[in-house]
Specification:
about 450 residues, alpha/beta, UDP-n-acetylglucosamine1-carboxyvinyl-transferase, Chain, 4-stranded mixed sheet, 24 strands, binds shikimate-3-phosphate
């Protein structure tokens, strides 16, 4: 929805090549964590490059509601005056996390071991998503949750008065669940342990260490084990947020499928727990290069160059790679439609509980664009039409999901006929400058609201 609640229909059509430099915004995962960890230490954390998408703005507002001083000094330049581990105050009103699963789940974790209550809600998408995956482990700390049927928002969490540490094996590969447990473990005495079968994005572990917590990571027979020593005194930090690889995916993939394109995306965070898409694209034959590889603020970073790649081939994406590219399957399925042969994406059941059911959203829209897609409960296969081979000419439903909206607009930039999305409003949750950035590269996007 647009800011006035009316859907913003938008259409993309093919034009000339996409060329130039794409400066994508700050990483969404790291931005949420910078605000939350800043609120959990005493003193001022300074953040530059913060993503000012609606999801992160909702988390900033929530941190203020829990008692932190949150100040915007300029574009992307923020400070958080924290209250310390265990120091959250009880919010006076409902915490509205908007569209953000990461925001609500991490904040629930951070407050669950404080002696306060808080009630959480969100938009229609977030209210349909399962919260039991976080409230189950939070109950082991001593927190209680009361929500709607199926563990849905609105939901009240009554924080543990006397929290105990927890040893938890995550049943789903989810960095949000892992992070909620670790953030709750901060205010529990002793050691909190989380074991995950497959390593998911590790920004929480890296940043907790940066803030001064003791975090040990080891490989064990059952997977990847993280041990946090509770009740640390976190020290305020200066954080430069790297640019978001999940946002970079859109101009990069657009360049691969629009004839003649050559786009440079500088300063992209390339944490290996996030970079699975780029490995996959290279296996498909994409012309991608990584320049100026370096480390910034504890995260690997590089400049990414993508050029039109007319000879990409479909592949079977290894299911064990899913966690490192979980948000990139929608845009990968678009690239797959412009490759030769089938791209099989298996082991991706989690896509069904994202901002929308992303398997169904992409399969439905791609079929409307003339692409053959097969799906099972936890996989989908896109039968590629080769470069320039996608008919397009459809209006696709965005389903309150930013990544679905952006994926179909990228599809329209390379399809034979224009592709529309019924509502481009959700793009503002993660990539508020998507439209000016893409049109700056040469894309043609039109708003057609009556
Ligand atoms: C995120 C984790 C992922 C991802 C989301 C951001 C995070 O969700 O899809 O966009 O910042 O921890 P899951 O942990 O549910 O897989």
């Amino acid at each position: 929805m647009g800011s006035h609640g009316t859907p913003e229909k938008m259409t993309a059509q093919s034009a000339g090549p996409l060329t130039g430099v794409a400066e994508v915004p700050g990483d969404k995962s790291i931005s949420h964590r910078a605000l939350i960890l800043g609120a959990l230490c005493v003193g001022e954390t300074r953040i530059s490059g913060l993503l000012e998408g609606q999801d992160v703005l909702d988390t900033a507002r929530a941190m203020a509601a829990f008692g932190a001083g949150v100040t915007r000094h300029g574009p992307g330049d923020w400070s958080v005056d924290g209250v310390g581990v265990g120091g959250f105050a009880e919010p006076e009103d409902v915490i509205d996390c908007g569209n953000s699963g990461t925001g609500v789940r991490l904040i629930m974790g951070a407050m669950a071991t404080c002696p306060i209550s808080a009630t959480f809600t969100g938009d229609a998408s977030l209210r349909s998503r399962p919260m039991g995956r976080v409230t189950d482990p939070l109950a082991l700390f001593g927190a209680r949750a009361v929500g709607r049927a199926g563990g849905r928002l609105p939901m009240t969490i009554v924080g543990a008065e006397d929290p105990v540490p927890v040893d938890y094996a995550t049943p789903v590969a989810s960095a949000q669940v892992k992070s909620a447990v670790l953030l709750a473990g901060l205010n529990a005495p002793g050691r909190t342990v989380v074991t995950e079968r497959v390593a998911t994005r590790d920004h929480t572990e890296r940043m907790l260490r940066g803030f001064g917590a003791e975090v040990a990571v080891e490989e064990v027979a059952s997977g990847h084990r993280i041990t946090l020593t509770g009740r640390p005194e976190l020290k305020p930090q200066v954080i430069a947020v790297p640019r978001d690889p999940s946002s970079a995916a859109f101009p990069v993939c657009a360049a691969l499928i629009v004839p003649g394109s050559d786009v440079l995306v500088p300063n992209i965070g390339l944490n290996p727990t996030r970079a699975g898409l780029f490995t996959t694209l290279q296996e498909m034959g994409a012309d991608l290069s990584f320049e100026n590889e370096r480390e910034e603020g504890g995260e690997p970073v590089a400049d990414l160059r993508a050029r039109f790649s007319p000879d990409m081939k479909g592949i079977a994406v290894p299911p064990e790679r899913a966690a490192s590219m979980i948000d990139e399957y929608p845009i990968l399925s678009v690239v797959a439609a412009f490759a030769e042969g089938a791209t099989v994406m298996a082991g991706v059941h989690e896509l069904r509980v994202k901002e929308s059911d992303r398997i169904d959203a992409m399969a439905t829209g791609l079929r409307a664009c003339g692409v053959t897609v097969d799906e099972t409960e936890d996989s989908f296969t896109v039968h590629g039409q080769g470069a320039g081979g996608v008919p397009g000419g459809a209006i696709c439903a965005a389903r309150l999901d930013h990544r679905i909206a952006m994926s179909f607009l990228i599809c329209g930039m390379a399809a034979k006929r224009p592709v529309s999305v019924d509502d481009a409003g959700p793009i503002a949750t993660s990539f508020p400058i998507f439209v000016p950035l893409m049109t700056g590269l040469g894309a043609v996007l039109t708003r057609d609201n009556g």
